Amino acid sequence: MATASPHPPARTGTGRGLAVAAAVLAFLLFAGQFVLARHGLRAGLGAGDIVALRFGTAAVVALPFLVRWGLADLGGIGWRRGALLALVAGAPYFALSIGGLAFAPAANAVVINPAMTLLGGTLLSALWLAEPVGRRRVLAAALALVGLTLLARIRFNPGRILRQRRSSRIRWA
Description:
By secondary structure, the protein is mostly helical. It has helices spanning about 15-40, 45-70, 80-90, 90-100, 105-130, 135-150, 160-165. It is built from 7 helices and no strands. The radius of gyration is 20 Å and the shape is globular.
């Protein structure tokens, strides 16, 4: 009797090219969202405007699929779980990320967001899921903290934050 290999089969040809293309697309979408959001903020949009555009467009695109997969149970996810996902990974999360762009360059946001996700995910998975935090995670968290500290350059200015007045409602032309 043959035993299954613990390693997935090697990908060649089209599979590898597709994987590289998907990785490049993911990179462009992740980095591009911060650059485009920063551009929108500079052009006069508020963080709420950008959040509404992102999630409003996604809702219009996703609605036909949701109706097909089942609106009653949110496509198999369930309304309770869907609400939790929307709260922690949806518009509030994105609004905080985009709101930070009013105070930092887009290049900083591309670094701050994944570093804080790493730190928060490590902490929350240890507290809520009782997952062990091994040496690799501690090292990754330490490196993220060092990077964030170097990026911040200890130039926090609370007065600027208090003076910042960005509207979060959608402006209609």
